[in-house]
Amino acid sequence: MKYVCPSIGKKQKEDIKNGYQLFEVLMERNLLAADNTDLLKKLLTDAGRLDLADKLTQFGTRTRNSDPGPNEPNHSERVRIDVATDVMADNVGKNWRKLARKLGLSEVKLQSIDQKRLDLEETTREVVREWRTAQGSEASVDQLVVALKECGQLLTAEKVQDAIQKDKNINSHH
């Protein structure tokens, strides 16, 4: 990685013997810090290490969003999201990338999901799982329905709403 780092001279690159020394140089030049990992993400992505770039992104998200409360929607919304996920897994199919982008997942995240080589149903479940993790307590079925509509999945959006309504009716009778 040291050979593709910007603004490090050839002589200094030769003097760097390990990752720790490289990070020290990058931090001295304000190219790397706890709140500035963009260069490192780019280097990892360029090196084809999307898994590590993804972990770095997740780490950054966790540290920025560390609210004292639970980072999950309330119980009833989690149940609604689970119902929606089942419907979506059966209906989104090969349009999962379009949905993932509408849900705000990064290209790195899409590549990471794609590399898992899941079937289409499991890929959609993974997209929703990643979105839910990123959204935390803000995750809602309404956001899923909007994203489905925005990527032309109107019938799937309608099926989600119908399933949620049906589930609500079933649960209100118990």
TrEMBL record:
Residues 81-164 form the Death domain. InterPro entries: DEATH-like_dom_sf, Death_dom, DED_dom, FADD. It holds the Pfam family Death. GO terms for cellular component: CD95 death-inducing signaling complex. PROSITE patterns: DEATH_DOMAIN, DED. SUPFAM superfamilies: DEATH domain. GO terms for molecular function: caspase binding; death receptor binding. This is FAS-associated death domain protein. The gene is Fadd. Residues 1-58 form the DED domain. One of its GO terms (biological process) is regulation of apoptotic process.
